[in-house]
């Protein structure tokens, strides 16, 4: 297959901001592909060769890509610097220079998908002293044979920033349209939620249709999208919603870990599907030791503890997120894991079983030790019992409680937030609202003391229905000097020359960013806003919801991907919760 056919599709996708149009461009294209190529092209559309959780990634630095472009086009470094300052996107620079090229090399041949995949695979696996040089030459070798549009997307694929605005939800829509009907969309999405592998779902669907996707199971080694909790403003509302009876667990303040335990290996994934095995080698080894099954997938919260075994606040466990010096961190910051769910045991998929059954299975399957424990859980039958349990949780330095449904429908809903689990935290009693995890979509140049830096950021929440990031506030408070100075390093690699098609904004910043970096923000209140686009016209005609007096808490949520930030629906429910609290 010719790579130009793929690049042309990416180009058409980039030219539209309508999700419906993107879906139909993709689905028409998908229908004509063989299943193996479809799988690979789905990964390429996300700037990858493999699913997100795969350990290796292309991730070439911009500087290296620029070197490959200058090597291919025969352009001086100073000219490249000039172009880089102007464009800020290696893809655009490659495209411009390939257009200006008088003629392609005499030996130039049309690029095929196979050739592109071969070189990209070598780039992904290049290691050792001269690996940078090798990567640069492998990319240049492809650029030699590229037309301008092909070059644009080659440079975007290797940096992992495609800028075509089509996320996983659009691909799932397109897969349903190409190989099934609208009604099949939830089954296809479940396939993705339990495997986290869009390419695999696409291939399975193209080979065996929706029936094959329905038979997909959770598997050790494929992380599962985590189930998330809704929130309510009081224990009595929680008990009402749960029908007067539910399980309550302590809500520990640590890092969520999904452990995939195999006969002789264990992998730990974060809720963002990053491999964290090297951060918690002690937990991985102890889980293997205490697990009575050959294979299992469990979830738990890893919490830092002091010398006497008492739980410490979240900040302490983040020392375990380091890249280097882990041996020392393991010694300095001991942790425990509190297990709360089991998703598979010896290849038996537990995700569709009710919570009570899963909890019994968890108890049966694991021995306990100092390091491996179960969350404290009790069955609660009244608001008074709930309040009592909540107070005991706070006494043990927990954040609050998780209420969990015990009904027959209380399955593990991979990748979704719902009322089967409801969280209730100490903050809910005190402040108007919980904190927000918002994604940076733009910045405003600073003035006065902040001249020459970014002075404020435009922040957005994710609308999981439209797939867009909708603005909720301009954030300029809570930044210390070090954070202000470090902002360009953190953000500039996501600069976008134009208003990104996935961002829904009326407030126009000085610079745009592709939605990537997530910051934790607190605010005094959620209010109706004439300028912000979150929940536009839902609570009131022509008004959206915005945050009043937003402040950065100092916490960059590196553990969350952009689609995992606070959603517009959550902000609506917090707005309603705030109204009830005020009443
Ligand atoms: P939040 O991050 O505020 O949305 O709260 C949900 C998170 O609480 C989960 O992702 C877990 O990391 C954490 N957590 C702590 N204790 C529990 C528990 N007993 N059950 C489920 N999640 C828990």
Automatic annotation (TrEMBL):
<dbReference type="GO" id="GO:0051301">
    <property type="term" value="P:cell division"/>
</dbReference>
<dbReference type="GO" id="GO:0003910">
    <property type="term" value="F:DNA ligase (ATP) activity"/>
</dbReference>
<keyword id="KW-0436">Ligase</keyword>
<keyword id="KW-0233">DNA recombination</keyword>
<dbReference type="Pfam" id="PF04675">
    <property type="entry name" value="DNA_ligase_A_N"/>
</dbReference>
<protein>
    <recommendedName>
        <fullName>DNA ligase</fullName>
        <ecNumber>6.5.1.1</ecNumber>
    </recommendedName>
</protein>
<keyword id="KW-0479">Metal-binding</keyword>
<dbReference type="GO" id="GO:0006273">
    <property type="term" value="P:lagging strand elongation"/>
</dbReference>
<dbReference type="InterPro" id="IPR036599">
    <property type="entry name" value="DNA_ligase_N_sf"/>
</dbReference>
<keyword id="KW-0227">DNA damage</keyword>
<dbReference type="InterPro" id="IPR022865">
    <property type="entry name" value="DNA_ligae_ATP-dep_bac/arc"/>
</dbReference>
<feature type="active site" description="N6-AMP-lysine intermediate">
    <location>
        <position position="251"/>
    </location>
</feature>
<dbReference type="GO" id="GO:0006281">
    <property type="term" value="P:DNA repair"/>
</dbReference>
<keyword id="KW-0067">ATP-binding</keyword>
<dbReference type="InterPro" id="IPR012309">
    <property type="entry name" value="DNA_ligase_ATP-dep_C"/>
</dbReference>
<dbReference type="InterPro" id="IPR050191">
    <property type="entry name" value="ATP-dep_DNA_ligase"/>
</dbReference>
<feature type="binding site">
    <location>
        <position position="249"/>
    </location>
    <ligand>
        <name>ATP</name>
    </ligand>
</feature>
<feature type="binding site">
    <location>
        <position position="340"/>
    </location>
    <ligand>
        <name>ATP</name>
    </ligand>
</feature>
<dbReference type="InterPro" id="IPR012340">
    <property type="entry name" value="NA-bd_OB-fold"/>
</dbReference>
<comment type="similarity">
    <text>Belongs to the ATP-dependent DNA ligase family.</text>
</comment>
<dbReference type="InterPro" id="IPR000977">
    <property type="entry name" value="DNA_ligase_ATP-dep"/>
</dbReference>
<keyword id="KW-0234">DNA repair</keyword>
<dbReference type="InterPro" id="IPR012308">
    <property type="entry name" value="DNA_ligase_ATP-dep_N"/>
</dbReference>
<dbReference type="InterPro" id="IPR012310">
    <property type="entry name" value="DNA_ligase_ATP-dep_cent"/>
</dbReference>
<feature type="binding site">
    <location>
        <position position="256"/>
    </location>
    <ligand>
        <name>ATP</name>
    </ligand>
</feature>
<keyword id="KW-0131">Cell cycle</keyword>
<dbReference type="Pfam" id="PF01068">
    <property type="entry name" value="DNA_ligase_A_M"/>
</dbReference>
<feature type="binding site">
    <location>
        <position position="417"/>
    </location>
    <ligand>
        <name>ATP</name>
    </ligand>
</feature>
<dbReference type="InterPro" id="IPR016059">
    <property type="entry name" value="DNA_ligase_ATP-dep_CS"/>
</dbReference>
<keyword id="KW-0235">DNA replication</keyword>
<feature type="binding site">
    <location>
        <position position="271"/>
    </location>
    <ligand>
        <name>ATP</name>
    </ligand>
</feature>
<dbReference type="GO" id="GO:0071897">
    <property type="term" value="P:DNA biosynthetic process"/>
</dbReference>
<comment type="function">
    <text>DNA ligase that seals nicks in double-stranded DNA during DNA replication, DNA recombination and DNA repair.</text>
</comment>
<dbReference type="GO" id="GO:0006310">
    <property type="term" value="P:DNA recombination"/>
</dbReference>
<keyword id="KW-0460">Magnesium</keyword>
<dbReference type="Pfam" id="PF04679">
    <property type="entry name" value="DNA_ligase_A_C"/>
</dbReference>
<keyword id="KW-0132">Cell division</keyword>
<dbReference type="GO" id="GO:0003677">
    <property type="term" value="F:DNA binding"/>
</dbReference>
<feature type="binding site">
    <location>
        <position position="423"/>
    </location>
    <ligand>
        <name>ATP</name>
    </ligand>
</feature>
<feature type="binding site">
    <location>
        <position position="301"/>
    </location>
    <ligand>
        <name>ATP</name>
    </ligand>
</feature>
<feature type="domain" description="ATP-dependent DNA ligase family profile">
    <location>
        <begin position="328"/>
        <end position="463"/>
    </location>
</feature>
<dbReference type="GO" id="GO:0046872">
    <property type="term" value="F:metal ion binding"/>
</dbReference>
């Amino acid at each position: 297959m010719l790579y130009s056919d793929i690049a042309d599709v990416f180009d058409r996708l980039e030219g539209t901001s309508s999700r419906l149009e993107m879906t139909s461009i993709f689905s028409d294209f998908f229908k004509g592909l063989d299943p193996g190529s479809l799988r690979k092209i789905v990964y390429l559309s996300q700037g990858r060769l493999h699913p997100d959780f795969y350990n290796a990634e292309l991730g070439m630095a911009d500087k290296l890509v620029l070197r490959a472009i200058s090597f291919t086009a025969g352009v001086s470094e100073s000219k490249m610097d000039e172009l880089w300052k102007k464009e800020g996107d290696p893809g655009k620079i490659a495209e411009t220079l390939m257009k200006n090229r008088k003629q392609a090399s005499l030996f130039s041949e049309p690029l095929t998908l196979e050739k592109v995949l071969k070189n990209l695979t070598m780039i992904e696996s290049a290691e050792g002293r001269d690996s940078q040089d090798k990567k640069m030459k492998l990319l240049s070798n492809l650029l030699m044979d590229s037309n301008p549009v092909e070059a644009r997307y080659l440079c975007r694929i290797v940096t992992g920033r495609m800028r075509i605005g089509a996320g996983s939800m659009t691909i799932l829509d397109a897969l349903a349209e190409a190989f099934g009907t609208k009604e099949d969309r939830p089954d296809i999405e479940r396939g993705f939620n339990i495997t986290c592998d869009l390419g695999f779902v696409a291939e399975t669907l193209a080979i065996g249709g929706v029936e094959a996707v329905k038979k997909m199971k959770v598997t050790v080694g494929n992380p599962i999208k985590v189930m998330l909790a809704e929130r309510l403003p009081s224990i009595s509302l929680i008990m009402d919603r749960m029908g007067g009876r539910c399980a309550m667990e302590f809500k520990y303040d640590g890092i969520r870990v999904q452990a995939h335990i195999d006969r002789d290996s264990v992998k730990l994934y974060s809720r963002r599907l990053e491999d964290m095995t090297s951060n918690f080698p002690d937990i991985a080894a102890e889980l293997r030791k205490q697990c009575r099954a050959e294979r299992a997938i469990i979830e738990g919260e890893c919490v830092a503890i002091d010398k006497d075994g008492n739980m410490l606040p979240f900040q302490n466990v983040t020392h375990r997120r380091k890249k280097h010096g882990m041996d020392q961190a393991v010694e300095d910051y001991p942790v425990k894991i509190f297990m709360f769910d089991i998703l598979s045991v010896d290849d038996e998929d537990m995700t569709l079983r009710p919570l009570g059954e899963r909890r019994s299975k968890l108890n049966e399957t694991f021995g306990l030790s100092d390091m491996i424990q179960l969350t404290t859980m009790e069955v609660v039958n009244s608001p008074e019992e709930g309040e009592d349990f909540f107070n005991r949780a706070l006494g043990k330095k927990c954040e609050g409680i998780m209420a969990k449904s015990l009904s027959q429908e209380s399955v593990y809903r991979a990748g979704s937030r719902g009322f089967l689990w409801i969280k209730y935290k100490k903050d809910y009693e005190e402040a108007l609202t919980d904190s927000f995890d918002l994604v940076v979509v733009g910045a405003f140049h600073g003035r006065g003391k902040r001249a020459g830096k970014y002075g404020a950021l435009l922040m957005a929440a994710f609308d999981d229905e439209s797939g867009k990031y909708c603005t909720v506030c301009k954030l300029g408070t809570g930044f210390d000097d070090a954070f202000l100075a470090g902002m360009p390093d953190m953000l500039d690699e996501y600069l976008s020359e134009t208003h990104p098609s996935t961002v829904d904004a009326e407030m126009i910043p000085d610079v745009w960013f592709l939605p990537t970096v997530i910051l934790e923000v607190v605010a005094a209140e959620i209010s109706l806003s004439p300028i912000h686009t979150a929940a536009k016209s839902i609570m009131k005609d022509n008004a959206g919801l915005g945050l009043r007096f937003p402040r950065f808490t100092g916490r960059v949520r590196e553990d969350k991907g952009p689609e995992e930030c606070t959603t517009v629906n959550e902000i609506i429910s917090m707005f309603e919760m705030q109204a009830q609290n005020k009443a």
